[in-house]
Amino acid sequence: MMQPDAKLAENIFQKPESAATRDGFGTALLELGESNEKVVVLCADLAESTRVLAFKEKYPKRYIELGVAEQNLATVASGLANYGKIPFITSYAAFSPGRNNEQIRTTISLNNVPVKIGGMHAGISVGPDGATHQALEDLALMRVQPNMTVLSPCDSVEAHKATLAAAAHNGPVYLRFGREKTPVITTADTSFEIGKAQTMWESDHPADVTVIATGPLVYQALLAAKELEHAIPVTVINMHTIKPLDREAIVAAAKATGAIVTVEEHQVAGGLGSAVAEVLAQEFPVPQEFVGVKDKFGQSGEMKELLPHYGLDAAAVVAAIKKVVARKTI
Amino acid sequence: MSINEHDIREVELKAEAIRETIIEMLVAAGSGHTAGPLGMADIFAAFYFRILRHDPKHPEWEERDRLILSNGHIVPVRYAAMAHAGYFPVEECLTLRKFGSRLQGHPEREKLPGVETTSGPLGSGLGQAAGIAYGARMDGKKFQTYCLMSDGEQDTGNIWESVMFAGANKLSNLTGVIDRNNIQINGMTEDVMPLEGLRAKYEAFNWHVIEIDGHNIREIVDAVEQAKAIHEKPTLILAHTIPGKGIKDIEFDYTWHGKPPKKEEAEKFLAELRTLKGKIMGEHQ
What we know:
B: 285 residues, Rossmann fold, 5-stranded parallel beta sheet
């Protein structure tokens, strides 16, 4: 059943609202424009699709255009943050942090200045644009940089809160957003705290497995839990913060259920699954299955075609749950 | 405001003290870059002892001019200049590149107050300087932002993205300085990847360009004064320098880009520098 403390949206299994996580970013920026004069927005020629157009129109003096220059996007933002501003930089994740990874490493993370990096169109769900634009390694790139906080919100409402939290956090932050509309799971009343995992689904009986998911695929994890409601008791955790990772929640889940499935729209190498496995290996090893992209590039197609093809939908989560439960030794 | 002969001599003496410290610190470190730091000693002396509005005792003073070093590998010259200016004791220079030192092999903002930015990977300083200048202009701040670059790093794409950005935004509170010493690791710049006509390239991107002898204190100071007076666009000071300047065995020799002098060599070089200092005093007295 839905975890009541999470205060999630009702009827998410019948007729959920849908919105893109990038939209939550856009609305939060408008709010920040009003509330925090230090916030400036930098964009590399993608104002509309990265959802910063409204900010540009309302606060033109605090919008800085870089053109198609992602390396400069990072370095100019570093300078602005060094001076005292709170810059948000936006492009597609494939280019930022894809193309400008070294500039982010040296001039943002090592410099330790509070630049907020919005990586848009992340994951395979961007669809028809194809493999060049489907960033599947951005979480890995960002989580290995010291000083960097990494956020991966599950829906537009959480994306809004994550963006506000990023502005308030005094350090570099990477925020991952998707292009496509996806179900809105959380509400204004759902809590959001950087580094604090959130249980979204609990069964009436002691659970046999914990599914730890991040980003819009949290919804697929919830669908899987619902489908197995009368067969396998499952706990679903929304891991919106990839770094700092909520180690306590992971260890508690491993101890309570003895098996873990991780779910992410990302390569299984280096992302959420790897991060969770690092914790389990050190603290409390239990069987783990990884739902994610298995060392492949994406391709053109619609989200509804791509998710099943790459094993990222609810059916893939159900299969992973069954597999990991079968592997349990206790 | 131009500079008088007495003040020129003072700056020149500082430059020679900086050169001596560079040799001493490189010998102590046992690794590091020699030619670049020596070639930029006059420019660093002019900045730290004449041009910059700064307070060595309060490196975070908000109204200070920002001096961004983009080519972080020549940082020994910056450390030496900062030490002689009073940011930290000159003796600390001998900790360069040592475990636990604030004087990292390439400068780090969080390690040593006053270095402004972390640098080393080439090409990212000008964008940061442009960001600082942009932010300062938004808030009506009066300080200047300077960015010192190497000629070799003009090979990078990031530099030209920043040149385009600063020119487009008419960042007149930003001044770039290129150490045009014509060498990079693999040889002469014009053999490795030709840069000329560098002046025309910057001008085409809406920059004002001044060419100077980078060892002539008067020309350095006057060029910066001129840059401050230009309000329509950013200025580039193309400073022609001699790599390894001050030590005949090192001058113009690109093999000295990335190695330190050996102890025996250093003794000879220091003697040569001390003779040079005597010559400067003689010429001006």
